[in-house]
Structure formats: C-alpha cells, structure tokens
Design a protein that fits this description.
It contains 13 helices and nine strands. By secondary structure, it is an alpha/beta fold. The strands form three sheets. It has a five-stranded mixed sheet with strand order 5-4-1-8-9. The chain is globular and about 55 Å long.
C-alpha cells in the first residue's frame, strides 16, 4: 500500500530559457474555449523541467522532504496544468489562483465562475476528470496527505465533493484556518488542527508555506501511520497544546529602497537565500514586506548580483 503527497504549485518557478506562458482572457470566450486555448499553448511549449524542479520555495522543499521520508509519490495541484506528478515535465507559466498579478480569479469572477470550474475544465482537457476522486478510489493507496493553501482548497473543492464516503478516511488535510472553512463540510473533520502555535516551534515560517510546514510536523509527529483520523487529530491537538501562542509582532512599513538596502546589507550573511532574507526582514529588521513584493525586490537584487559576478 502506498502514500501520496499533494501540495499546491508556487508562483516561484525556475525559468527554462523561454518566457513563461501567459493566459490571454481579453476575448469574451467561454470557460471551455479559454481552457482549450490554454491547453493548446501548453502543449505547443517545450517541457524543460519536471514539476518538482520547476516549482521552488520552502513549501516545495518541505513537501519533497515528506515524500522522501515516506517513500511517497509527490503530486502538485497546479492552476495551469491540473493535478500533475512531481516527475512530470512542465513548461514555465504564469497562472495562479492566488491573489497575485497573474491570478485567474478576476476573470472567473467576471464570468460568474469559481476556481473549481477552472480546475474541472483543465483536467477534462487532459482527459483526467476529477483526478483527486480517482486517486482516492485506488485500492493500492492507503493514505493521501493534502497540503494546500486556502486558495487552492477553492480550486479543488468540486473534485473533493466527488470522493466517495468510503474513500474519505484516507485523506488528511493541512491548511490554514480559512482553508479549513473553505473545505466542503464533510471533509473538515479530516483537517488536522494546526494553528499559529506552530510558529513557536522549529517549524516556524511564512503564511504561504504554513500547510506544508504543518504536514512536515505531522509526519515527524506520527510518521503518517494508518491511525484513524480521531487518533491523528488528538495527537496534533496535544502537540499544539504544548506550544505557546506567539505574541503579535509589530512590524514597520518601509519603502522599496529601504527594503533593498536592508537586503543588500544582509545578503552575504544570508547567502542570498530568499527564504532567509525574508525571515531576516520580518524577524530581525521587523519590517513588513508582503511576499509577492519581496519576491520582486529579491529578483531585482539577484539580477544585479549576477551581473556583477559576470563583470
């Protein structure tokens, strides 16, 4: 019997020498037509990297660690590609369901559609409808660990609804409090009760990687055994109860120039690592910097650093 790890894709991707694909929604096309056009774009592009190498960031690293620890299959819930295996070759693309500049949500809202409608359309075009329900039905799989942000819970909600009652006990969800609330009601009892107390443990991190950090904590705590959900829930509750709540940290606002100056000052000490520099800004410099804003500034500084090394 095997285990499957499902995590969300990330907006941080390794480029493969070509500009990333962009979804064009200028024309008032239907959902089916827009999804078909998108899939044609994807198929026409050279696939340069496997998914587990294309996506970057701590959330991916923690998901990969869990997959190695459990000798499990790693899969990604991708806005652009549907449900894909970690070893599946992928093109670079800019499309997300999160609140980012390249989000598909505004277009879906204008069309009166939901993220789940897009997920269904994309997976149908790949001829693999309801892939999560299909996985849960497989008898050779006895555990599916799902670490998704609230936005990606929205993306797969319709698919989850198709999972048969007898297959639901295989699932364990790791997400934020808003993510739990967005789960279909019948799945909320399968969400492990992680909260902000995780930030007072060695698994502290950013909001963006909370689900994957929680999943890693769970695996280290329980080794993802085949305990019933009640036992898993109780184990996580006890672990959270042993941790103190982290007090609210007040962070000051800073201009882009000031943030870049702080990053330059700490660049060598943090080895240019984006995750370490973000933690430095938030925990040491006590500067407020939203992740997408930080990403843009970090990429700018990284480009400068690479140019200096060439010169």
């Amino acid at each position: 019997m095997s285990t499957v790890i499902i995590t969300n894709c990330t907006n941080r991707k390794r480029l493969g020498g070509q500009p990333p694909l962009e979804l064009c929604t200028a024309q008032n096309q239907s959902l089916a037509a827009t999804a078909a056009t998108w899939i044609q774009q994807v198929k026409a592009r050279t696939f340069t990297r496997p998914a587990e190498s294309l996506y970057t960031g701590r959330s991916v690293q923690d998901a990969k660690w869990v997959a190695r620890k459990l000798d499990a299959e790693l899969m990604f819930a991708s806005t652009g590609l549907g449900l894909i295996g970690g070893e599946q070759p992928c093109p670079s693309y800019n499309l997300t369901v999160a609140a980012e500049p390249n989000s598909i949500r505004p277009w879906l809202a204008r069309m009166g559609l939901t993220p789940s409608d897009w997920w269904d359309a994309v997976n149908n075009h790949w001829q693999r409808p309801n892939p999560l329900a299909t996985l849960a039905k497989r008898r050779d799989i006895n555990r599916i660990l799902i670490a998704l942000s609230a936005n990606y819970i929205d993306l797969v909600a319709n698919d989850l609804e198709q999972i048969a009652t007898d297959d639901r006990s295989k699932l364990r969800f790791f997400t934020s409090r808003p993510g739990i609330e967005r789960l279909p009601k019948q799945f909320r009892s399968l969400a492990m009760p992680y909260d902000d107390r995780l930030e007072s443990s060695r698994f502290a991190g950013t909001r963006a990687d909370f689900p994957q950090r929680a999943m890693r904590h769970f695996v280290e705590l329980t080794n993802a055994s085949t305990n019933p959900v009640s036992a898993d829930y109780q184990a996580v509750s006890a672990a959270m109860s042993a941790l103190p709540l982290v007090g609210t940290i007040k962070r000051r606002r800073a201009s882009d120039e000031e943030v870049k100056a702080l990053m330059i000052e700490a660049w060598d000490a943090q080895k240019g690592s984006s995750s370490r520099l973000l933690r430095y800004l938030r925990d040491d410099a006590l500067v407020a910097c939203e992740q997408s804003r930080f990403r843009g500034l970090w990429l700018e500084l990284k480009s400068r650093s690479m140019l200096r090394s060439i010169v």
